[in-house]
Amino acid sequence: MSTEPLFSYGTLQLESVQLATYGRLLNGTPDVLPGYVARTLHLDDELVIAVSGLTQHAMASFTGDASDKIVGTVFALTTQELANTDDYEVSELTRIMVQLRSGARAWAYVDTQHQSADQEDSDDDAA
Questions:
Q1: Of 86, 62, 80, the residue nearest 12 (C-alpha)
Q2: Distance between CA 109 and CA 94 in Å, rounded?
């Protein structure tokens, strides 16, 4: 079964969200997303709030500053699980392919308004 790498820095790391979104717990590998900072996103999406139990989520915003970083976890998801993640994430975030500190490339959900110019075209690949 083929998998897609997903860099998670927020609620997708919570067991309750993983069980609700994927029906299983995920195993992951720590990694870092450079050039981004985590900002607070205030939610009004009742489904996401119900699943996560939180009204505020982290949102990755591109800064381009090499000293900025977000620590997270890379999970291997099936194509269906990645589609489930698209359904879970809110419209203020878009899925793009990013380069992590380890050198690995992975999908990540970032602030639609603050993504790097060279990564804006990656959104066309998102399902």
A1: 86
A2: 5
SS3 label, residue 100:
coil
Structure tokens at 109: 């959900």
Predicted model pTM:
0.80
- Spatial neighbors of 126 by CB under 8 A, at least 6 apart, are 86, 94, 95, 96, 107
Domain span holding position 65: 4-125
Assign residue 99 the CATH number of its domain.
3.10.490.10
pLDDT in tens, 49-91: 566 665 666 788 899 999 999 999 999 999 999 999 998 887 7
Crossing angle of helices 79-88 and 15-22, in 10° steps, is 110
- Here the tokens at position 84 are 């489930």
Count of the separate structural domains present in the chain: 1
